[in-house]
Amino acid sequence: MSVAPHRPPDRGNAATSHSFGPEPRPLSLLINGEVRTALADPATTLVEFLRDALGMTGTKIGCDRGACSACTVWIDGEVAASCMTLALDARDHSITTIEGLARGDQLHPVQRAFIEHDALQCGFCTPGMVMSCAHLVNNNPECTLDDIQAAISGHLCRCGTYPNIFKATLAAAAEMRAAGSEESK
Ligand code: FES
Ligand code: FES
């Protein structure tokens, strides 16, 4: 599975960054394939928009200053810190959050592997970790331990579950390689 960068439809965001605010106004963003609209002001970050305006609390706030990666989402298929992104700047981009990673009842291989390999304790860092690890295995199913360590080098896990995160991500990558070779038969 990969997230193909695509442009959202014209959602009538007539306001520009210059004309938006200072009072909250309706803002429409493409999130997990759906247009979602809620109030935002110019200082609203993407993670605040997700959590506070839309009630999508899967994405966590750890440091709120770009230092822990708990708030990781995908923007146009690339990992991004949603606490460092203004909601306004996410207009005309496609956002994927942890809530949008599964396909119906089918968890992403990284989500399944995190469960099977006990790769979480308190779980606070987990959504962000999963988004970065899923991005890695989607784009590089041949990834090595070094690749995984690099992919999550900006993530802080206070519970120290790194060894099991590495095992889970290697297992998910192996599953995706196996699925890929099945498909090519
Ligand atoms: S909450 Fe965004 S990087 Fe820590
Ligand atoms: S599982 Fe607790 S912070 Fe990572």
TrEMBL record:
This protein's superkingdom? Answer: Bacteria
Where do the record's region annotations for Disordered lie?
1-23
Start and end residues of each 2Fe-2S ferredoxin-type domain: 25-101
InterPro entries this protein is in?
A: 2Fe-2S-bd (IPR002888), 2Fe-2S-bd_dom_sf (IPR036884), 2Fe-2S_ferredoxin-like_sf (IPR036010), 2Fe-2S_ferredoxin-type (IPR001041), 2Fe2S_fd_BS (IPR006058), Beta-grasp_dom_sf (IPR012675), Diverse_Oxidoreductases (IPR051452)
UniProt KW keywords: 2Fe-2S, Iron, Iron-sulfur, Metal-binding, Oxidoreductase
Which Pfam families does the record match to this protein? Fer2, Fer2_2
Q: What is the name listed in the Swiss-Prot or TrEMBL entry for this protein?
A: (2Fe-2S)-binding protein
In its UniProt entry, the species of origin is given as Steroidobacter gossypii
